[in-house]
Design goal:
23 strands; binds glycyl-adenosine-5'-phosphate
Length: 486
């Protein structure tokens, strides 16, 4: 596990070297906090997304999925509160002109302090953030003589709010007022679900409680974007809004927080690396909120948010659109023995960042291993122990030699398997070198075709995690892999 800072740099280099993640527009020196996924990264990301989608929309019979557009009517973001509230307190250093998110600046400083002092400082910060006390936050920064990493001075501006939404112009019509054509790049996918609540409820004849799930890109003009793909300006979310009866929100909030933690564990994330963290300062739409945190190589950080969003969003869209957004519940209320009737549903939201989950999985998978061979010399490898069910390539098919009919047998196996799962064919280099490459990419199974295959139709299968090799029938390969990945 890459849980040490120095290993984290190695993990980042590994992701680049093996086609997982590249810096965006690297040939132009990159774009800060924007990343591209390479051939293996894109496949791993898709596998994680598909796993989430399946568990939400196929394994829960009361959750359906949609795919809303990134562009939305600009009033959406007025109604949701993002135009007025989606901002973070920032501070600028007057000497370097560098802008910091106040919580990140203080958290960074806390990391340099002894544990108890750090704890006290962070508690003070949380209390001030909860009260939106910007003067108090400035005082805290001044009192602790926190310095800018670039100028090394404590010459700070006041603390100010900074909106995180990106905007652009829509259509080609020129206007004197640039705001006329202004649209935002969505900062969360959730609003695409809220504005489609009635469409889905009516066309799908959905009965409360039910959920609407969605995956897609979101954009935030993060000021301090750091730690690789942990905090990006363009990222992907996997969100589910669960519509419920008013008053039942705490029950469902508890249910979904437990359910989501278990789901992360089903991806091989150990329970001791996950924890709940209740929000001190609630977002403008929430009456309860928590993070599921993971112990990343750089410390405990948010992986997923669970939010009880009340009826805030649907009511706001009702008010701004002037369209009635309600649900008629004809189930009987046991207290009155009458139907619950018309109401605006409450919502519990689960919201996980796909890129953050990718980082979780790859940092757990990354292992540098060393051992002594029988002759006493040292051997080593770097291996990505990605769970087989989401690994980008499941099976490598490797003819021992490029001749004697071995490639032909290998290609037949490839044809047999490739419609069922991702396979990779490789005939170059010594077999040991090819195994190491597959370890580094994270391919869980390698099959070698050799001269014995021609005699008895058996092959060597090698398991990535244990490096154990065994002989099995060629005809069994496909079923064995299918069994392991399902
Ligand atoms: N709809 C609710 C919402 O967006 P959030 O806590 O702001 O809540 C949810 O975001 C999740 O999205 C986070 O837990 C995180 O995994 C991911 N996320 C948020 N900002 C991100 C960023 N800048 N880069 C990568 N992932 C991010």
């Amino acid at each position: 596990m890459a849980n040490e800072a120095n290993n984290f740099q190695e993990l980042i280099s590994h992701c680049k070297e093996y086609g997982y993640i590249f810096q965006s527009s690297e040939i132009y020196d990159g774009l800060a906090a924007v990343y591209d996924y390479g051939q293996n990264g894109a496949q791993l990301k898709k596998n994680i997304r598909d796993y989430w989608w399946k568990s939400m929309t196929q394994l829960h019979d009361n959750i359906v999925g949609i795919d809303a557009a990134i562009f939305m009517h600009p009033t959406t973001w007025k109604a949701s509160g993002h135009v007025d509230n989606f901002s973070d307190p920032m501070i600028d250093n007057k000497d370097s002109n560098k802008r910091y998110r106040v919580d990140h600046l203080i958290e960074g400083f806390a990391e340099t302090l002894p544990e108890n002092d750090a704890k006290r400082l962070l508690e003070d910060m949380d209390a001030l953030l909860a009260k939106d006390d910007y003067a108090g936050l400035k005082e805290l920064i001044d009192d602790n003589k926190i310095k800018c990493a670039i100028s090394k001075t404590s010459n700070w501006t006041d603390v100010r709010q900074f909106n995180l939404m990106f905007s652009t112009e829509f259509g080609a019509v020129a206007s004197d007022n640039p705001d006329d054509n202004k649209v935002y790049l969505r900062p969360e996918t959730a609003q695409g679900i809220f504005v489609n609540f009635l469409n889905v409820q009516k066309t799908g004849r959905m009965k409360i409680p039910f959920g609407i799930a969605q995956t897609g890109k979101a954009f935030r003009n993060e000021i301090v974007a750091r730690q690789f793909i942990f905090r990006m300006r363009e990222f992907e979310q996997m969100e589910m809004q669960f519509f419920i009866r008013p008053g039942s929100q705490m029950e469902w909030y508890k249910f979904w927080s437990e359910e989501r933690k278990k789901w992360h564990q089903s991806l091989g994330i150990p329970a001791e690396k996950l924890r709940f963290h209740d929000h001190v300062k609630l977002a403008h739409y929430a009456d309860a909120a928590m993070d599921i945190e993971f112990e990343f190589p750089f410390g405990w950080k948010e992986l997923e948010g669970i939010h009880s969003r009340t009826d805030f969003d649907l009511k706001q869209h009702q008010e701004y659109s002037k369209k009635k957004i309600q649900y008629f519940d004809n189930d009987l209320d046991p207290d009155t023995n009458k139907p619950y009737g018309n109401y605006t549903p409450y919502v519990v939201e689960t919201s996980v960042g796909l890129d953050r989950l990718f980082l979780t999985i790859i940092s757990l998978a990354y292992n540098e291993e060393k051992w002594l061979k029988e002759d006493g010399t040292e051997d080593s490898r770097v291996v990505l122990k990605i769970p087989a069910k989401i690994a980008p390539t499941k099976l490598a098919i490797l003819p021992l030699l490029k001749k004697d009919g071995l490639p032909e047998i290998a290609k037949e196996l490839m044809d047999e398997c490739k419609s069922s799962f991702m396979c990779f064919y490789e005939e170059k280099d010594a077999i040991g070198k090819r195994y190491r490459r597959m370890d580094a990419i994270g391919t869980p199974f390698c099959v070698t075709i050799d001269h014995q295959t021609k005699e008895d139709n058996t092959v060597t299968i090698r398991y990535r995690d244990t490096m154990v090799q065994e002989r099995i029938a060629l005809s069994e390969v496909k079923n064995l892999v299918l069994q392991k990945i399902n």
